[in-house]
Fold this sequence. Notes:
Layout: E1 2-4, E2 9-17, H1 24-34, E3 57-64, E4 70-77, H2 85-92, E5 97-103, H3 109-125, E6 135-140, H4 150-159, E7 164-166, H5 175-194, H6 196-199, H7 204-215, H8 221-225, H9 233-236
Parallel strand pairs: 2-4, 2-5, 5-6, 6-7
Antiparallel strand pairs: 1-2, 3-4
Helix pairs in contact: 5-7
This protein binds guanosine-5'-diphosphate and magnesium ion.
Amino acid sequence: xxxxxxxxxxxxxxxxxxxxxxxxxxxxxxxxxxxxxxxxxxxxxxxxxxxxxxxxxxxxxxxxxxxxxxxxxxxxxxxxxxxxxxxxxxxxxxxxxxxxxxxxxxxxxxxxxxxxxxxxxxxxxxxxxxxxxxxxxxxxxxxxxxxxxxxxxxxxxxxxxxxxxxxxxxxxxxxxxxxxxxxxxxxxxxxxxxxxxxxxxxxxxxxxxxxxxxxxxxxxxxxxxxxxxxxxxxxxxxxxxxxxxxxxxx
Length: 250
Ligand SMILES: Nc1nc2c(ncn2[C@@H]2O[C@H](COP(=O)(O)OP(=O)(O)O)[C@@H](O)[C@H]2O)c(=O)[nH]1
Ligand SMILES: [Mg+2]
């Protein structure tokens, strides 16, 4: 988080983390497609010919809140391949919230697990604690055969402390849900810590809904956030301190 108090500008950093090819870049591409010109900047991606993220992707978003605050969101992805370990660590520096993009395919369960442990370690190396980090989990690629069942995900969500979203990122399904859930969770956490809503006269209860509107979301954004299986991200933010962090919901 960066705060320019004089300019009343808050910049938060959200990171989409996960194993290689789980759909992190696809999430940003879908978000870029569905959001309005006025709030989104240029999607920067750098990929090799075989479709793999070489460095990271960045989608900048900007909002004017009803109070005195302008909010910038920098949305990053990490490259999942093992060889890019140092890049992942770098991208996680100063992260305010993380969406873990898991691949729903049964064959990818081990890769998800390894990536989750990698996330925890890289946060730690940056002086950040997974237990205190606003975190949502997305199970992507729900359209493929041989994926983990809805029942299994419901069970995972029930025992975990992270909100779980299902997605088909290539079709844009579950993408706004995941993003808004993470944004709501991150905002509540930062607000609880720094009292932004008082300092900048922003109404916390309508904050995310107002941002969603600027993004061009039609319909009720709260409904999108509530698509989470298990914990509600708006409730989870206040209890992130208690998360065990070790079970790696993915
Ligand atoms: N069937 C299916 N393919 C997907 C989905 N999301 C991503 N993909 C594909 O998976 C591959 C990797 O996606 P990408 O977003 O580049 O993954 P990243 O490495 O996590 O950034 C690409 O070929 C995507 O088209 C999905 O929900 N369903
Ligand atoms: Mg990528």
